Fold this protein.
Amino acid sequence: MFRQLSNKIVLITGASAGIGEACAKIFYQNGNHVILCGRRLDRLNKVKEDLEKQQQKEANKYKVLAVEVDVSSLDSIKKMVSNLPEDMKNVDVLVNNAGLALGTDLIVDIDSGKDLDAIMDTNVKGVFRVTREFLPGMIKRNSGHIFNVSSIAGSMFYPNGGMYCASKAAVNAFTDILRKEVVATKIRVTNVCPGLVETEFSLVRFSGDAEKAKKPYLGIDPLTPEDIADNIYYAASRPEHVQITTIETMANNQASTTVIHRT
């Protein structure tokens, strides 16, 4: 059973599509203010427009902001935070969802400059930097919930995924340490580790090649962004004394990153 979670300020990175967009919808539909963050402002505005249409139908008064930010850039994060309206600065729920993978090269073939920087700056530094901006306020208010969207790849390593697996392992460690460091507060910290979720993730990984992007999901009914958003909202809506530390979710017929039964 869901506990009513309402009138909270929820900030979601990578909110223009996929898991981030699905999180925005479920939190908003349950009566919360939502800050949509991402690099594609046009897509964020479309999500905002869709949510506000729903608001008009239901006569809700919840706010939606679309804010352009590149989490791989500290300057961009600082600008985003400074531009938030005063009444939206005290973020109650932070969903660090922005992340990416690039290619499936062996470690010996990975571009040690551009590709490595893009993965680590987004998946690792981005999570740290965004968290660092809002954590002091949560500590001061003695409340808040931080979700870091990692992956089963952060603990189930596989060849041809070296830098991506390493980045998600770092997220796992960061999340575990953060939870221990705020243990004396009422702040909750949840690590979210999905398996195969059909989103634009593969399209980005394969540089826009739609045919290659389809292959990971062939022969299996993959998870949807809504499945993961449902998990996140469930954890957020637990009674205050309940902290769900880790959510590991895979599609039926998937047992690990590499053990998958396909029909």
Observations:
- The CA atoms of residues 18 and 199 lie 5 Å apart.
- The chain has a mean pLDDT of 93.
- The first strand starts at residue 9 and ends at 13.
- The chain has one domain: 9-249.
